[in-house]
Design goal:
Blueprint lengths: L16 H7 L1 H4 L8 E5 L7 E7 L5 E6 L18 H24 L3 E5 L4 E5 L5 E2 H7 L5 H18 L6 H10 L3 H10 L3 H5 L12 H14 L8 E3 L8 E3 L5 E3 L6 E3 L1 H21 L3 H25 L3 H23 L14 H18 L3 H21 L2
Length: 398
Amino acid sequence: MSAETINVSMILTAETVPSYMAERADKIGVFPADAPLTAEAITGGNVNFAFCVTNTETGRTIFVKQAPEYVAIFGPDGLPLTSQRMQLEYDVYREWTRVLGPELSARYLPKIYYLDNVHMVFVMEFLDGFSLLDHDLVEKGVVPKEIATGLADFMARVHAATHCSQVSPEKVREFTKTYENRAMRDVQLEFVFTKCYKEATEEQRDGLIVDDAFMAEIEHLRAAYDGKKTTNLCLTHGDLHPGSVMVNAKGAVKVIDPEFTCYGPPALDVGSLLSGYVLATVHQAYAKNPAAVKTLRDAAHAIWEAYKGGLQQAGLPDDLIVDTEVDTVGFTVAEVCRTALGFAGGRLWLQFEDANVKKAAMKAALGIVGQCMTGRHSGGIEQLWTALDELVLDETVE
């Protein structure tokens, strides 16, 4: 669809969503046109507008979101952004469904009902009884191990099936073109790999040495994210931190919000996910919750071991798995660094009312970054576990 045919001038609100749904009832296929609907705006997201829509007669609820031509939280005069991200999100869900098949798709993905690629509106299953993984990691501390292994299984399957070493050169070119996602990639290149290092103060960087060697590692990760490491590419979610995962008490997993999807390094997804577990481990250590620390640390180990096993089973060459391991540590600590420096928006990690505890937790997180950013080349994933163990054990064993 060309940019000229997109019309996002009609921005949905809680008041207008019911009539929007009624007018497209036949296409959406969820509610009849005369269904009594109510809509409630969902807050907490930054990029899109989102709503919970309920049929008050039956109680059935669905999820609706719209991608404007800007970052929603900043408004139309803020940061511009192409609404085409919604089309890519729909496309990657379809590709994942093809790769996973019906049973695994139902296990790991929400049900998709409708895409309006004129007004860039996406209608999908409302995950009743689910919560965001990042909230559970902070508020509960202990989450089922099945969540970790489920996410590892999902990543290993979709990464291996789309990996540039496993598909034809023609398919690689197709993936590279279709999922370049330049607009969203440029946002990440600026906000994840540039801004925090340029703008952080000496006080924010306390305990972290940001020298030429450190920045060379950031530039390496930046180039890898931008698709420059062409020997190790796959179809990624692109932003698979725990805020992009819905879970329930039984250990079920649903992957959401893949609008940053790109044909990029597999380590991007694994590192983004592991960064949440690392940050949660540090957070729980400084919240004096040693039981959660051990559980989270074990879950982080389980993610990597299950993921690595999945790649091996799929036949990926050992050298590419080692390369993915090293860059997984890099992407993990880069996201830990951005968060600890205070450039990751409203994330819950390391937020304490006691200013001294908060400062100590952030310094500890940066300590992990300092030990692993360059050390990963010789120590691999073990370097991350060693740094994490030293830090959290020092804090929780008194």
